Predict the structure.
Amino acid sequence: MFKLIKYEIKGGYKYFLGVISTMMLASTILQVNHRNQILNNYRPEDQNVVMQIFTSLSIISLIILLTAIVIYLINAFKKDLDTDQGYLTFSLPLYGYEVIGAKLATAVITLLATAFLLVAYNQIFSSLIFTKELSYSYTLFESLLQPLFLKVGFFSFIALITSLLLIYLAMTLSKVSLKNKKIGGYWFIVFIGLII
């Protein structure tokens, strides 16, 4: 199973590096723009508006990042079902739960590594361009350690893993029901049916 996890990570590392690089570039642009606005000595009430905009853009960029990673994970499973690569994956001497477990472990490793890299990058870059008093990253990092945020993060993570399992189930059910045809978007209808 660990070899399959290693194989899955090797197969998608270029995509993940591209997504992480894009997010780091977006974070750099946001932080440099915020620093320039602080240096222009604007009023304190304007600073609150800018902080809210900065926070909103950061949250939107994280949602885009998670969406891009989830779309990649879904497409990787779809490729295993639809292409010749699936013959290799599903003919391995592993049980079905080990294959799905390896895919979920890959998803967990990818999401945690991405989140850690982005938080660490923001922390380091923010400490370099801001003083500690003005650093948005310090307040963000302190807010990440609040118990409420940790609970919300944990339950969101569980919901994401559950959603991935449901999507994998929907894709498998649609593949089995259509025999050997390509899935297309039929799995999404099955997914909606499973949710309801």
User: Anything to note?
Assistant: The longest helix spans residues 44-82. Residues 147-196 form one domain.
